[in-house]
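Need a sequence for this fold. Nothing fancy.
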């Protein structure tokens, strides 16, 4: 497989999750995947969740199993978590986190929730339709009560961004998966590049 070009994520983990991300990212890239997010939770004991995808945004159940088999020995050797834990490899899901600048372009036309590190126009939370990027600013179409009709948010101020689950997002995600499975989808294709 080898060598997925990995665009840097603008949102990073902290603490042990950051250590795990730094540890596993080279192996994921070598396998042709990129990391979306690493999180650690205390549900059902300790769980380390590694969210990954191919550069075209796809991942299969078999891919998750392969990643788990590859990363388990690496994590065992470096032992970043005290005590026992469960390793969970997952896809970003339909209402995925937006972790790279290109995500805002690839998912333009879809609704997103964005939270900033500091106040922007008196707010930290925004919801609107992604319009893409202008330099290092995310363009968002938002309601008038949120500063609309359009708003730009510097990508460096974003602490979290996630797509909102809508019927159109579900349809678009299914179209992308179908095209990717057929080998006809360019990496990070924008919705207008996808035909039914």
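Here you go.
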């Amino acid at each position: 497989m080898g060598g997925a070009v990995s665009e840097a994520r603008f949102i990073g983990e902290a603490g042990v999750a950051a250590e795990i991300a730094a540890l596993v990212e080279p192996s994921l890239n070598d396998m042709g995947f990129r990391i979306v997010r690493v999180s650690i939770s205390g549900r059902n004991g300790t769980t380390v969740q590694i969210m990954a995808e191919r550069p075209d945004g796809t991942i299969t159940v078999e891919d998750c199993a392969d990643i788990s088999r590859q990363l388990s020995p690496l994590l065992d050797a470096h032992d970043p978590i005290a005590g026992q834990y469960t390793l969970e490899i997952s896809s970003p899901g339909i209402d995925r986190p937006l972790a790279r600048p290109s995500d805002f372009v690839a998912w333009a036309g879809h609704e997103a929730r964005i939270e900033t590190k500091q106040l922007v126009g008196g707010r930290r939370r925004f919801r609107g339709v992604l319009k893409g990027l202008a330099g290092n600013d995310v363009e968002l179409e938002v309601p008038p009560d949120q500063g609309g009709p359009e708003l730009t948010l510097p990508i460096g101020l974003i602490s979290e961004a996630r797509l909102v689950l809508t019927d159109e997002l579900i349809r678009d995600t299914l179209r992308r998966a179908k095209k990717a499975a057929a080998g006809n989808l360019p990496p990070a294709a924008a919705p207008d590049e996808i035909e039914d």
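For context: Confidence is low (pLDDT under 50) at residues 1-5, 185-196.
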